[in-house]
Design goal:
It is a single chain. By secondary structure, this protein is an alpha+beta fold. The chain has helices at residues 2-19, 136-146, and strands at 28-30, 34-37, 40-41, 45-54, 60-67, 72-74, 79-81, 86-94, 100-110, 117-127, 153-154. The relative contact order is 0.23. The model has no long low-confidence stretch (mean pLDDT 81).
């Protein structure tokens, strides 16, 4: 009976200590965390891409992603980025429920070095479509489709990489 108790105690301690892994903080670089997008028309989909580089010595685990609006969808809710690697998180903003100037925040929860939350911010002006003539946002969109543009946002000097 004593052997069984020792075996059970040893087995339970191995399971307990083997499963208790602590996430250590790691450093990251995310460029353009504050973005100001050019105006879009109602019902347009704005695609956002954020590249995250893990510059630390531990794997980065993004355990949860929260948005300030249900109009922002992401391709995944959890992501693991090995040390020294880069990954991209994609979002889609559906402007069909907003009109006017809108501001949104995306919160990334993970084992970041200085805090467990990393904030991404963007704003955009959503303009209602016109029935009688094409508005400048629609003309801009058509022109943009004909000309290749790398970024559809700008960064002012005050909010660059807070």
């Amino acid at each position: 009976m004593k052997r069984i108790n020792i075996f059970i105690t040893a087995f339970l301690s191995v399971i307990y200590y083997g499963c208790s892994s602590e996430l250590k903080p790691t450093s990251v670089i995310i460029n353009d965390t504050v973005r100001h997008y050019y105006p879009i028309a109602t019902d347009d989909i704005l695609k956002l891409s954020y590249e995250i580089e893990n510059t630390g010595k531990e794997p980065l685990v993004i355990s949860e992603i929260q948005t300030t609006c249900g109009c922002i969808a992401t391709d995944n809710q959890r992501k693991v980025i090995p040390e020294g690697q880069k990954a991209t998180i994609n979002f889609e903003y559906d402007s069909s429920k907003n009109i006017g100037y809108v501001e949104h925040e995306i919160l990334l929860y993970g084992n970041f070095e200085n805090s467990s939350i990393y904030k991404l911010y963007f704003d955009v002006n959503v303009v209602p479509g016109t029935d009688y003539t094409e508005d400048y946002e629609i003309l801009y969109k058509e022109r943009k489709n004909n000309i290749s543009v790398k970024k559809n946002y700008y960064i002012d000097s005050l909010t660059k990489d807070r």
